Amino acid sequence: MDNFLLLLAPALAATINAGTPLMLAAFGLLVNEKTGVLNLGAEGMMLVAAIAGFATTIHTGSVTLGFLAGAAAGMLAAAFFGLLVIWLGTNQYATGLALSIFGGGLSAFVGIPYTGRSLAAGKFAIPVLSDIPFLGPVLFRQHPMVYVALLLCAALAWFLMRTRTGLVLRAVGESPESAHALGYSVRRIRMAAVVFGGACCGLAGAYLALVYTPLWQEGMTAGKGWIALALTTFACWKPWRVLGGAYLFGGFTILQLNLQGLGIAVAPQFMAMLPYLATVVVLALISRNPDWIRLNIPASLGKNFNPAAV
């Protein structure tokens, strides 16, 4: 039993580590979608943020500044998306895809001088708690951003369901026409949500480059932005379910290493595709119950709003 726990503890710790960037990005996308805006550009925002955070850390030596730079890069990319979609009325799906492609290309170009460079892996531990058998290595030796993500989950759940501002935000996603008639600026609320979503995706991208890897490599998100997008649907737009889903997909991500450590021979190509296969399976299962989605999905999701037309 002790040997099993010794193997399980690092696996669970790695699962939390792998699930954190998915969780951060999904929280941002969830807030976007709660206001009726569907941003398919998460992958591009995360890549731009990853290179911004990595380059900043390389030149300043500060991981904190790296995270701030990543968040700022994500916000800037999201603001550009919001300008096009919310004020100019471009198609949300096409604009999001364009942002994803643009972010991938821009990060690859800017990241050329940083390819192959790496950062020293930091070690973190909460005094006393990190020495608790089993729980210490799993829960209390994580990067501080892991705890920020957990606090963000609790804050979002409270904000969306317990505050007046959260109610207004959800009302904009359900019926922007009604919110506009009550005197709320639908465009500004949507823009604020989009920028917040960009900041979360930026933190997720910076986490990949500064903590999870930590290095810069072209296309290093490897589809995690798309998994985060699917995660919001999997979670039915509820923060606590996003948390569980992120750790579930994180577990699939590190399963390959665990099986290799146990001496189980599985084709690495199959294991690499496992998180994405799980995403497809989960979405297929959810789509079998359209009533479940209809009861939870924001009614105006993916639909532009023009106050002049009301």
Spans with pLDDT under 50 lasting ≥5 residues?
none
**What spatial form do the alpha-carbon principal axes imply?**
globular
Instruction: Give the count of helical stretches.
Output: 13
CATH topology: ABC transporter involved in vitamin B12 uptake, BtuC
Helix content: over 70%
Name the beta content range.
Answer: under 5%
Extended strand count: 0
Query: For the residues shown, what is the average pLDDT?
Result: 90
- Termini separation (Å)? 66 Å
How many domains would you count in the coordinates?
Answer: 1
Sheet/helix structural class: mainly alpha
The CATH class label is Mainly Alpha
Q: What value does the Rg take, in angstroms?
A: 20 Å
- Succession of helices and strands: HHHHHHHHHHHHH
Biggest beta-sheet profile = none
> In the CATH classification, which architecture applies?
Orthogonal Bundle
Question: What's the assembly state of these chains?
Answer: single chain
Transmembrane segments: 37-58, 65-87, 93-112, 145-161, 192-213, 265-286
InterPro entries: ABC_transp_permease (IPR001851)
GO cellular component, one term: plasma membrane
Organism: Noviherbaspirillum humi
